[in-house]
Design goal:
Dna Ligase, domain 1, 9-stranded antiparallel sheet, Rossmann fold, alpha+beta
Amino acid sequence: MPDRIILPGSTIGILGGGQLGRMTAIEGRKMGYRIACLDPSPNCPCGQVADDQIVAGLNDVAAAIRLAERSDVLIYEFENIDARLVEELEKNYYLPQKSHILAVAQNRILEKQQLCKAGFPVAPFLIVRNTEELKRGVAQIGYPCVLKTSEGGYDGKGQLVLEQPQDFMKAAELVKTENIMWVLEKKISFTQEISVIVGRGEKGEMAVYPVSENIHRENILHMTVVPARISPQTESMAVEIARGIARFFQVVGVLAVEFFVTPQGLLVNEIAPRPHNSGHYTLDACFTSQFEQLIRAVCGLPLGSTQLLTPAVMINILGSNLPKILEKMSYFSGDVKIHLYGKRGNPAPKRKMGHLLFKTDCPAQIDEIIKNFVMSGCIS
């Protein structure tokens, strides 16, 4: 039995108020929990469905302590929470996700070093602090390669691809003007991108979700297909590595592991110690969603079944797609579900506003589903 069980009726405090917090809050309320959140934006996506919201910055220590005082258990919804703040909170309050893996996931250098140390496969990389190290790094790794900020950046932000020597000067200018550390890594020629989400409890018990196949456009996740169209051997290896990483970092909650599939084998791209965009399909296609699993894990409840109930395709709704999707919504079949995140204001074209879930009878239908949806004009 877990040392601590947080039963329904208790309050879950969420650090962050975006869509991941919103979907976690909805699942928590279905189970009978009260929800409080901390976010600087009034009426944020999570705040709209929570019992209580503290409107303050995510680095506001006093506000975070107020949230902790109102909560029986604390969680963070994404990586933009200061790991030092989480470290302070876990000294006096129950925050089972812990700060260590958050700090690792926030820093690409730490992440790659830790994964390498544990023997997990990653792309060749070097640390870059100045233009001289950049020059030596490019000579060692070769073209094409990718220069990434060590901290911050998501959906392709904070990255520059160097395809050929002519790109070096632009990269050198970035390194010269930004007084930060960088990661230079080999650009991987992959056949597919996949991800595995693992739920893990305090006693080390694990529940693994079906491997999903991810398709990106302009570095933003566009589509997730489940089950992934990969060989049984690749599936087995991905699950084994993901379980190993969750065990290595002593995860409590959920962990997403992103992989490149290459002819030579799997490479770990990134890890995320929280619900992941590629796992949104679990809301409608699995017996237990990734969001409910997070709650079960941190509250000391038995992990839920991750059984896939139906093959499915998840497509992100960006700001540029939203008007057309709403216009066409009355024509959708009964095998399509829509989730909108309650984001206010005029959406930026590439901002994630929601997602669609397509139920399929078999994975072979996927291409036909996407073809029909593209022809309808909802996505390009």
